Amino acid sequence: MKKRQERTYNSPRRIPGISSVLDSLVSSTPELSKLAVVMRIIKAWDETVGEKLGKVTRILKYENEVLFVRVTSSVWRNEFYHIEDEIKKKLRGKLGSIKITKIVFL
Questions:
Q1: CA distances from 73 to 6, 7, 82 (A)
Q2: Rounded to whole angstroms, how far apart are CA atoms 98 and 106?
Q3: Which residue from 3, 63, 66, 84 has the fewest beta carbons nearer than 10 Å?
Q4: Which of 69, 39, 66, 67 is nearest to 54 (CA)?
Q5: Using CB atoms within 10 A of its CB, is residue 76 exposed (0-12), middle (13-18) or buried (19+)?
Q6: Alpha carbons 35 and 68: distance in angstroms, whole number
Q7: What is this structure's pTM?
Q8: Is the CA virtual torsion 31, 36, 37, 39 positive or negative?
Q9: Quick one: DSSP state of residue 73?
Q10: Domain locations in the chain as residue ranges
C-alpha cells in the first residue's frame, strides 16, 4: 500500500477592511485625495459652527488654503465676517495638517 503524501495548506489570507482599501485608494488618486480633504473640512465645519449656523452655510470649495462658504443672506455673511478668526482658530485645531488661511463668505 502506497503512503499518502501529507498535504500542506496555505494559511488563509486576511481580507483587508473597507477603511484600509479606501485609504489606499484615496492616497493613490489625487482627485480622491482632494475629496477626502474637503470631507474632513465639512465635518470639522459642522462640529465648529454648530447646528444653527450650519443650516445657513454650505461649503463650496477649498482651494489654495482658502475655504469658500455660501451663506444664505448678507446679514449672515456680515455676522460670519466678525467671527471668521475664531472659526479659523477652531478649525485649525480640528484639522491639524490642513491649513485654512482665509474664509471667503459668498
A1: 77, 73, 15
A2: 22
A3: 3
A4: 69
A5: middle
A6: 15
A7: 0.69
A8: positive
A9: S
A10: 19-105
Q: How far is CA 86 from CA 51, 81, 83, 90, 103, in A?
A: 17, 10, 5, 6, 11
Structure-block grid coordinates of residue 28: 493613490
The tens digit of pLDDT for each residue in 5-19 reads 776 666 666 777 777
CB 11 within 8 A of CB 68: no
Q: Cell numbers at residue 18, please?
A: 473597507
Cα-based angle 93, 96, 101 (whole degrees, multiple of 5): 80
Rg, C-alpha atoms of the chain: 23
Note the CATH architecture for domain 19-105.
Answer: 2-Layer Sandwich (3.30)
